[in-house]
Amino acid sequence: MIDRVLVTGGAGFVGSHVAEFYAERGAEVTVVDNLSRIDTLETADESRATGAYNWHYLRDTYPEIELVEGDVRDADFVEDAVAGHDAVVHTAGQVAVTASLDDPRTDFDVNAGGTFNVIEAAREADSDPAVVFASTNKVYGDNVNAIPIRDEGDRYWYDDPEFEAGVPESLSIDQCEHTPYGTSKLAADLYVQDYAARNEVDAAAFRMSCIYGPRQFGNEDQGWVAHFILSTLRDEPLTIFGDGKQVRDVLYVKDLVRAYDAFLSDPGGKPSVYNVGGGVDHTTSLLELLDRLETQTGKRTEVTFDEWREGDQKVYVSDVRRAKRELDWVPEVSLDEGLSRYLSWYETYESA
After folding, report:
1. Cβ of 321: how many Cβ atoms within 10 Å?
2. Which among 178, 180, 158 is positioned nearest to 167, based on CA atoms?
3. Residue 119, Cβ neighbours under 10 Å: how many?
């Protein structure tokens, strides 16, 4: 039973759902966030202010949650924040490949340095908290694009039977191009693995694919499923980088939080790395998502196409069999159901 949980980046999309999950279960929840998303994402604007919205949502809906404004780059602050908690969910980070290319130092300081501060604070804490780190599939770098693919019309798919279940945790992270974002998250990921391997902290890195759901305000830099939904609902033109046939596995946010909790509730002897996403049963191409949205909303926004961006992957699908085996976890919410839930939430949001 988790009694006291700290959520870094708790005003973010994933972090706010983690905070809500544990608050609903009666745990004492502390949320830490520096509310920097609007400042760090080039294409973010006040109409898509995820952090500000979720900060106020948690404050108003769960007054028992302690909200603390602070920065994971401040080691002393992090040490004080972690103390006394029996679980830490570390979602704070610089979240965009594009921003990392423009400002790699900040990206490194937040993602690598911030995670080091969290995992070291957990090591020092008398409460001996277990730690979950929100890592990313970008740690595999361009090795993902070395996997053969085939064109299936509106989507690409793997053309190698070795990857019929998706990308496993054993795919090499070495000898390939990475973006600064992928590199900084990989450095953090490795620190988490090292502290776990040396039994300093019960910790795991969850290499996430595309997470979506209510209270996410996506944009071109990050959160593409929500970005597509919002662009459709608001009749805003949409730019697709590449040809739209690129495929991702998508995971509803509450399914992700269940995976986190499965580790935190019983971390002893568990592996320290998990690929977590929708897996092969929950995939979509960008073009296919537009079709699904048109079916559910009756609308299709104007789309233009641009060049592929650095760090883009033509196909990424998580092999989630380790999470199923070790955590007794499977995704439960289908993409159509998840989109329906997002649309229902957005209707309430717009009418508020």
Report:
1. 15
2. 158
3. 24
Of the candidates 294, 286, 291, the residue with the CA atom closest to the CA atom of residue 241: 286
Do residues 132 and 206 make contact, with C-beta atoms less than 8 angstroms apart? Answer: yes
Amino acid residing at 344: S
**Model confidence at 195, in pLDDT bands (50, 70, 90)?**
very high
Q: Which helix (H) or strand (E) holds 212?
A: strand 210-212
Average pLDDT estimate for 161-176: 98
Residue 108 corresponds to which amino acid?
Answer: F
**Token pair belonging to 78:** 């992090």
Known catalytic residues are: 181
pLDDT at 176 over 50: yes
CA-based R_g, the chain, Å: 19
pLDDT in the model for residue 44: 46
Q: Which residues pair with 205 in a beta bridge?
A: 133, 273
Q: What Å distances lie between residue 130 and 5, 92, 215, 227, CA to CA?
A: 10, 16, 27, 33
Kindly report the average pLDDT of the chain as a whole number. Answer: 95
User: What distances in angstroms separate CA 182 from CA 127, 137, 185, 266, 307, one per listed residue?
Assistant: 31, 8, 5, 29, 20
The closest alpha carbon to 41, from 218, 213, 212, 189, belongs to 218
| The pLDDT of residue 221 is above 80 | no
Residue for token pair 């641009």: 306
C-beta separation of 141 from 177 below 8 A: yes
Per the DSSP assignment, residues forming a β-bridge with 90 are 8, 133
Residue with tokens 């590199």: 183
* Average pLDDT of the segment spanning 7-19: 97
Q: How confident is the model at residue 28 (pLDDT cuts 50, 70, 90)?
A: very high
Quote the longest CA-to-CA distance of the chain.
56
What are the distances in angstroms from CA 202 to CA 133, 199, 267, 273? 11, 7, 6, 12
Would the pLDDT of 231 be above 90?
yes
d(CA 88, CA 30): 10
